[in-house]
Amino acid sequence: MLHVEATALPDVKIIRLKKFGDHRGFFSETYSRKAFTEAGIDHDFVQDNHSLSPVVGTLRGLHFQSPPFAQDKLIRVPRGRILDIAVDIRASSPDFGKSVAVELSAENWLQVLVPAGFAHGFVTLEPDTEVLYKVSAPYAPAHDHGLAFDDPALGIDWGLPAERLILSDKDRKHPRLADLPRYFA
């Protein structure tokens, strides 16, 4: 029912799901612990989150939680389209500071698994975009952190000019990678 592909950062996975359609619409099993475990993805998801961004260029991120509340995330888009970004922030990783981008949309029906130790963010590419994601740890405000979306050391191309990006005040104030404590040593 699902196919798992590695990205340029091997721990970040793309999940291709089956979608069965007929004259009534479609059906898709978007998560089955058994199927995911059999495909080598064994995470204990404890919470589902859902966001709506009415305006193109809404950027959420780059976010992560530090241990012991670090989160694995399984992201999908049931309506609209996003550019999803994951940045490796594991200090001992050979991919430290590298990022990967995957376009997720209602049309392509892909999911992305972003494991703990990665900062995560996305920008909306269509109006009224909805993003659903499972997380493996509950929200813990004292462990909630972020990474500067515009850090030149990361070199992330968000796909839109900077003046079109809409961010929260909080997301504009995150530290750059060089100033980020090594939460994932």
The Cα radius of gyration reads 16 Å
Instruction: Give the helices and strands as they follow along the chain.
Output: EEEEHEEEEEEEEE
State the total count of DSSP E strands.
13
So how many helices?
1
Helix residue percentage:
under 10%
Catalytic activity: dTDP-4-dehydro-6-deoxy-alpha-D-glucose = dTDP-4-dehydro-beta-L-rhamnose
InterPro entries: RmlC-like, RmlC-like_jellyroll, RmlC_Cupin_sf
Protein name: dTDP-4-dehydrorhamnose 3,5-epimerase
EC number: 5.1.3.13
Describe this structure in words.
The protein is mostly beta strands and 185 residues long. The chain has one domain: Jelly Rolls (Sandwich). Helix content is 3%, strand content 40%. It is built from 1 helix and 13 strands. The chain has one helix spanning 33-38, and strands at residues 2-6, 13-17, 20-22, 25-27, 47-53, 59-65, 73-79, 81-88, 99-105, 110-114, 118-124, 129-135, 144-146. It has a 6-stranded antiparallel β-sheet with strand order 1-2-10-7-12-5, with no helix packed on it. It has a 5-stranded antiparallel β-sheet with strand order 9-8-11-6-13, with no helix packed on it. It has a two-stranded antiparallel ribbon with strand order 3-4. β1 (2-6) and β2 (13-17) form a beta hairpin. The mean pLDDT is 96.
